[in-house]
Amino acid sequence: MDVLHVASEVFPYSRSGGLGDVLGALPAVLAAQGVRTTVLSPWYAGLSGEAREVWSGELPGVGPARIGERVEGGVRYLFLGLPDFDRPGLYHPDDVQRFCAFGRAALPALERVGAQPDVLHGHDWQSGLIVAHAHLAGLKTVFSIHNLQYQGRWNLGEARSWTGLPDWAFGIEGVEFFGDVNLMKAGLVFADQVTTVSPTYAREITTMQYGEGLDGLLVRLTLEGRLSGILNGLDQERWDPRTDPHIPTYGDLGGKAAATAALRAEFGLGDAPILGTVSRLADQKGMDLLIEALPELTERWNIVVLGGGDPLLTAALTGWAQHPRVAFAQGMNEALAHRIYAGADAFAMPSRFEPCGLSQMIALRYGTLPVVRETGGLVDTVPHDIGFRFAEATPEALSACCAQALVTFEAPAAWRERAERGMELDFSWDGPARHYIELYGRL
């Protein structure tokens, strides 16, 4: 079986968040389980690592294009180079137009290098147009929602000519959405099977609260047996406290104390327990709830935050960093992220919604107990008798849950027992990969 994954980012070549991490791990596990696996992603100007150019030329309706190739871990990585991607950074305000060009160019370019998949698996809205064109070409398709909030919308009158789709595809049963072209909807409408990254999120997005305006369509897909939730895994080699090059390594909680002491020293923190978080600073992630809860949290906890995003949240955390119990590092820093996961005692994820989330799985693997809101993949990965969960997206609920965690922290035997069981949980990609292989096989 030959499967082609299409995504806007793939670790370690390009990455802005969890999507890149998934594409960096899942294809290699599929390849190890016997699936011939190819990944197609844009050839960004700042691509990490070298790609060998294997084709260049003109594509009808698109213009100049080129394909680069790397083969690693049994996976063939293809990078599609277009003029629109010859600029620094991954994402830009004109991304709908850029990824329409990518979507139109993908299948003709793949033909030039002999890529003939049995199944095309697109990830998030940036691949939605490719899924539509693959369906029209007779390919079997899977489309995965990693975050329904981001949909790739643009005015229909302007974007219509960018897509290369036939006129009949622009009705309400096609890619039209309140006067816009919607590339997320294109993936949902044209895919043979739609998945999302946790079973709970698959149920949540069929409701008005979480459906982002597409809940009616998603209810229909569920009734037709075309929507399912497959929980993401974790790259357990990259995230392993026994071999992690960024921390004082440890195989059990006895060794974790050195990582905690190192984090405490790095930020000049006192003896209070450490509540860490590594996150985009965004409304989805509930970082405003954490900030509003800081007056109460800092009475009993040290707080360490790593992240970037919303300027207002960034400014608020920068101000709070003057507090002796608050440390804030702006942006993304891979090594520091590892030190926080390992050195914190507890890990906060007050998300308003969370399709799957990787941070809570990493924290558990490092013996750091998560404090999470009961939503999406956080429900599916944080057992209530190991981590700590709260229902309402309010600073008061977060504070109360942290207070509950502190009661357990002050009973060292109970805390240790929870942390040890958390470290034993299996978040490998082996199980999810088997579910995907079964799904491909059915198609």
Contiguous runs where pLDDT drops below 50 for at least 5 residues: none
Describe the oligomeric state of these chains in a short phrase. single chain
- The CATH class designation of the largest domain is Alpha Beta
Q: What is the count of distinct domains?
A: 2
Q: What's the gyration radius in Å?
A: 22 Å
Mean pLDDT: 96
Strand content: 15-25%
Provide a count of the helices: 16
Instruction: Name the helicity range.
Output: 25-40%
Shape type: globular
- How many β strands by DSSP? 18
CATH fourth-tier homologous superfamily of the largest domain: Glycogen Phosphorylase B
Cross-sheet strand order for the largest sheet: 3-4-5-2-1-6-7-11-12
Distance between the termini: 11 Å
Could you explain the architecture of this structure?
Keywords: Glycogen biosynthesis, Glycosyltransferase, Transferase. Pathway: Glycan biosynthesis; glycogen biosynthesis. GO terms for molecular function: alpha-1,4-glucan glucosyltransferase (ADP-glucose donor) activity; alpha-1,4-glucan glucosyltransferase (UDP-glucose donor) activity. This protein is of the alpha/beta class. The protein has two domains: 2-233 and 430-442, Glycogen Phosphorylase B (Rossmann fold); 253-424, Glycogen Phosphorylase B (Rossmann fold), CATH 3.40.50. 39% of the residues lie in helices and 21% in strands. A nine-stranded mixed sheet has the order 3-4-5-2-1-6-7-11-12, with helices on both faces. It has a six-stranded parallel sheet with strand order 15-14-13-16-17-18, sandwiched between helices. A three-stranded antiparallel sheet has the order 8-10-9. The termini are close together. The model has no long low-confidence stretch (mean pLDDT 96).
